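User: I'll paste a sequence; please echo it back and then give the predicted structure.

Assistant: Echoing your sequence first, then the prediction.
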Amino acid sequence: MNARTWLVRLYPRSWRERYGDEFEALLEECLHSPLDVLDVALGALDAHLGFTHETNWRLMNMVNKLRTTTLIVFTAYIGFIIAGFSLIGLVDDSPAAQLMKTDTVLSSVWMTIAVASGITLLAVVAGGLPLAVSVIRKAFTTSRRMLRLLLVPVYAFLAIVIYSLFMASLAFGWLHLPGVVQIVSPDNFPIGNRILLGGLMLVFILGAIASIIAVWKAITGLDENEADIKDAGRFNSPKIYQYTFALAIVTGLGMLVMLAGTLVFGWLANSALPEWFTSNQGLLLTGTSLSYGATVTIMILSTAAAFFGLFRGLSARKAA
């Protein structure tokens, strides 16, 4: 069995019976690199997740890729947001925060990151709204399974709220745990407090992962026909993903601007405050440079994933 045949076999049987011969002929012309193999594998994943719209192969392929692209970009954005929270935690109450009060260049870079963050958030909300309307409508009318999937983000949010209230009760002295103090400082940060804070980060990350998987399954579980998305306004199936793809581009560009701003901010802060970067004022009192490096690494990986999805979507639009 050659590589092309193996890749075709990744797709569902019903899909292969309809498009297999045409798709294998296309692979003979277009399969040139490992990225092409990854692209085909992602297409197989999307096909297994429930594309049922009756249409021609090229239009189906475009919608498949645009849908997966949207999910890849918005998933990458969640990863980027996690890194963004760590950046805020690193800078908050730090010497860099004090320096921004007098250093206009440093404060301008931080403001650029904040503005890009706001625009990107609006793009994500606007891009996800039509899909959210479709998913919610189906969840409350025809699909109990989809309703269960929609409850996953709610449960994740409640878990964060409950954990945060537990930490607040310790901070205010309403509850007491051995090895945990009410007020921490760089000179007094016991292991118990570090474990609690690390637990909050873990709950947030696991909740985000579970929510992403649930939303991904819910969106890909939509029946791709006009009746299922009529509440999304004037969009039919291909158009709704072209619309979300346009906002996914804005999201990717916003992530790129925030990444560039974070790199410039780190360079300026390190030049002005080298002692801060060599201290242990990072998250959980780890090294500042280590915490900043981990943040930037997550941002780079998230941005790279988003742009991989965007290039994949652009290729699908050109081929359609």
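DSSP finds eleven helices and no strands in the chain. The chain has one domain: 49-319.
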